[in-house]
Amino acid sequence: MSKRIDVSDLNVYYGDFLAVEGVTMAMEARSVTALIGPSGCGKSTFLRTLNRMHEVIPGARVEGKAVMDGVDLYGKGVDPVEVRRQVGMVFQRPNPFPTMSIADNVLAGVKLNNRRMPRALAQETIEKALVGANLWNEVKDRLERPGSSLSGGQQQRLCIARAIAVEPQVLLMDEPCSALDPISTLAIEDLMNELKNDYTIVIVTHNMQQAARVSDRTGFFNIAGTGKPGHLIEMDDTSVMFSSPSEKATEDYISGRFG
Amino acid sequence: MAAVTDEPAIRRGPAPGRLGNSIFKGFSLGSGIVIVVLLGLVAGFLLYRSLPAILASREQLEGVGFMQGRDLLSYVLPLAFGTVLSSAIALIVAVPLSIGIALFISHYAPRRLAQGLGYLVDLLAAIPSVVFGLWGVAFLMPLVGPVFAWLSENMGWFPPFSDYQAPARNLATAGLVLAVMILPIITATIREVFLQTPTLHEEASLALGATRWEMIRQAVLPFGRSGIISAAMLGMGRALGETMAVLLVLSPGFVINFFVLQPGQHQSIAANIASQLPEASGLGVDVLIATGLFLFLLTFFVNLAARAIIARRAEFSGAN
Lengths: 259, 320
Ligand SMILES: Nc1ncnc2c1ncn2[C@@H]1O[C@H](COP(=O)(O)OP(=O)(O)OP(=O)(O)O)[C@@H](O)[C@H]1O
Ligand SMILES: [Mg+2]
Prior knowledge:
- The complex is a heterodimer of chains A (259) and B (320).
- Chain A is an alpha/beta fold.
- Chain A has helices at 43-49, 80-86, 102-113, 119-132, 136-139, 152-165, 182-195, 208-214, 238-243, 248-254; strands at 5-14, 17-27, 32-36, 60-68, 71-72, 87-90, 170-174, 200-204, 217-223, 230-237.
- Chain A has a 6-stranded mixed beta sheet with strand order 6-7-8-3-9-10, with helices on both faces. A 4-stranded antiparallel beta sheet of chain A has the order 2-1-4-5, covered by helices on one side.
- In chain A, strand 9 (217-223) and strand 10 (230-237) form a beta hairpin.
- With 320 residues, chain B is mostly helical.
- Chain B has a single domain (22-316), classed as MetI-like (MetI-like fold).
- In chain B, helix 3 packs across helix 6.
- Chain B is flat, with a radius of gyration of 26 Å.
- Classes of the chains: A alpha/beta (259), B mainly alpha (320).
- Chains A and B meet through helix 2, helix 3 and helix 6 of A and helix 7 and helix 8 of B.
């Protein structure tokens, strides 16, 4: 498991509106890459191009390359459905399926690939994913309860379990802790530290401390003004980015002097 | 700050806006009461007017020509059976079709086409039922005749399909006409529900690598489940009470059986009332009103059952 993604010259559009322009960056395998930057600079937009979720929006399109394991995700004949099975995603707001039990939520993705699962295997998958998402102990006695009966933090970890149950190569997380309290946030940060042993993780966050705590590499996005496209300003090892960034804008943003 | 001004920050007496609130509260409470009272009045009227028929002796009822010597229960049961069976046929045909059309409009068609199609479906709802009845006789009947004949010949071992007799003035045709009639209301209701599926859940499914159809099965259909049931009940309510279309299409009979391809077997309560009332008098009218009461109760309990089904899994619905 775990593959790197190399993005080159990526332009991302909503209809005619160029939202992100000319991004070239690498997301290393078995590491956490953090994307930071002011609101509206295109972090979510960029993240969603990595599993081809961007094109779900009517009129949205992408130019450029995103290569994983030698294959361009946007190459001819590549099925977005196949890409999404390899590149999982956790959203900003926890979104377990309300009509499914906790157990079925975990299996939601697995069952797409493998409809008739033997019971024992299903049990094993559920336990492994929930343990992996640090949720097992809290829910093991109520796996048949609806997913919506959990707290927000638990729901988010359920979504993580759902995403890792299909054993993707890469895990994308868009502000996964923004709806959570500090304790749930810590739980998820710890989880990311464990998960990066197995997965390539890309996380968008507004929390500088979080980026500093969990990530190995950090990329800073910025926009020149509203209506202008977002750019990747700078990308480096997280320790370097937070101590001696080479761009003035990065330093201003990180230190909170951002106007 | 509050300490600087003389007035305390929290005034005594009602806060501004209280009055509007009370008026609205009274108004909505009043509307609620009106509904209950209306329902009670209708039920009361039906019950009051059917009492003579319910209390009438056998001899008295034998005087009512169209009952052909039956007592009230054995008169109304075949009618109720025909009513339910024709509505069931209509639902079996209309609900899957409606789900398909609604899905196409909400999740497959390009926006322009979807709008046009939605509009067309709504237009269908505006066609008067007598026109549907005429359409059923003049257009549908010749069309389905050969199909019924084929079914009867090749699948006649299945009792409902046995012994088709032309012309197709049978319950199957009536059910099909009803299906077309209730299609718009069911489709429109289901479409609205599907359109309200949270993007969050659709994206959750797609991000797991679901195809569009898998996404629909995982996120859209379960979310719309209770909506689909309510829509079906709305349609069923209409089909149960539909008069004109059945009256024009069906050749009536008073038997309880499943031979839906044979004419002269079934009749619906509403169509029966419409056909007998002009000739009826005295106790005959009371009998027909009693069948009306039965229809009222039938629709009422169908709706109750639907609510119970929806409530049973409320915990797993998209509402929380
Ligand atoms: N569905 C959409 N249709 C059109 N434009 C969009 C859409 N979603 C986002 N945009 C635009 O794309 C640009 C980038 O938005 P994006 O959501 O990627 O920003 P972000 O960096 O994630 O911001 P935040 O930190 O607030 O989440 C913004 O100008 C936004 O208005
Ligand atoms: Mg965002």
